[in-house]
Amino acid sequence: MEKQAFITGGSGHVGANLIRQLINDDWKVRCLVNKDIRAFAGLDIELVEGNILDSLFLEEKMWGCYAVFHAAAIVGVENINAEEMERVNVQGTKAMCNAALMSKIERFIYFSSIHAYEQKPLEGVLNENRILVSDSRSSQYDLTKARAENEVNEAHKKGLHTVILNPTGILGPNDFKPSRMGQLITNIMNQKMPITINAGFNWVDVRDVCSAAIESVDKANPGNNYILSGKWASFQDLSEIVSKQIGKKTRWVTLPFCVAYLYLPFSYLFSKIFLKRPLFSVGSLRALAVQASPLNKKARDRLAFDPRPLDETIKDTIDWLVKNDF
User: Fold this and answer.
1) What are the tens digits of pLDDT across the range 130-174?
2) Domain of residue 35, CATH code
3) 192 lies in a domain?
């Protein structure tokens, strides 16, 4: 029997890939949309326009669906757009949970973030038993993702079959906006990032995240979190992989991490002049400075999660960006 999914965040990086994988797996897809439809233009899905805060509207549109995949979020490491983050990330998730309960949804899959977890202590590994962020001095994004998880957990207590996924830094194709990570690869490709800093992150392929999400529908334990981590790589590593793929030099020098703070005023100024996202910000440097080592064993064991090599992810990302004139 063909299953139907209700998706939010379809215009984003995760949503664009999730829709394609669901279609390939013979799901019918109903997607909550805003003005940006590039990510799913021409695909055989049902589009519904509405407000993510309107639980009555959401309830009506969820009827007949088997699973909800809630990926809509305002993403940002800077403490700007705080009210919008609270509204969409927290209140939007609460409305989604209420609607799912009322419409008798069988499965509710929430895309959270590794940033919802406290990164300290740095010793040892970060697994699903780590506490959620609660310090008011933390990034607003981290706080709202943690509070959104609390809303999902409350809905689980009321009978909703929930699953929470915590991916790390997401890379991969079908990145139409593009995301911050997609912009990073684009900047490296176009030789706009000749200077890197001595830092990095844990990267995971968006397609592996979406595969785990679909697997979680029938394989995940309800009320559980699953960390979806891949491979840690420095910005220098990324630059060298991109350089090898495109056959051009992309990096000239790697600076000590502390030097990046001296660059912040110039990064902010250039972003204002050229109306582009700054390469670095106080928030992004703070996120890079404090990282625990995420463990994906639970997802491997339960969801058959098997992240592909980073080189493959970057090659496919570059191929897609070139094909789509980025």
Assistant:
1) 999 998 878 899 999 999 999 999 999 999 999 999 999 999 999
2) 3.40.50.720
3) no
For residue 96, the enclosing domain spans: 4-172+203-231+293-307
Q: What is the dihedral of CA 184, 188, 192, 198, to 10 degrees?
A: 80
Q: Render 184-253 in DSSP notation, one character per residue.
A: HHHHHHTT---EEES-EEEEEEHHHHHHHHHHHHHHSPTTEEEEE--EEEEHHHHHHHHHHHHTS---SE
Residue 176 one-letter amino acid: F
How far is Cα 224 from Cα 201, in angstroms, rounded to an integer? Answer: 24
Contact in structure between 202 and 231 (CB atoms under 8 Å): yes
Pair of tokens at residue 203: 């990267």
Is 272 within a domain?
no
- Decide: pTM greater than 0.90: yes
Domain-embedded: residue 129: yes
Cα Rg for the chain, rounded, in angstroms? 19
Burial of 83 (0-12, 13-18, 19+ CB in 10 A): exposed
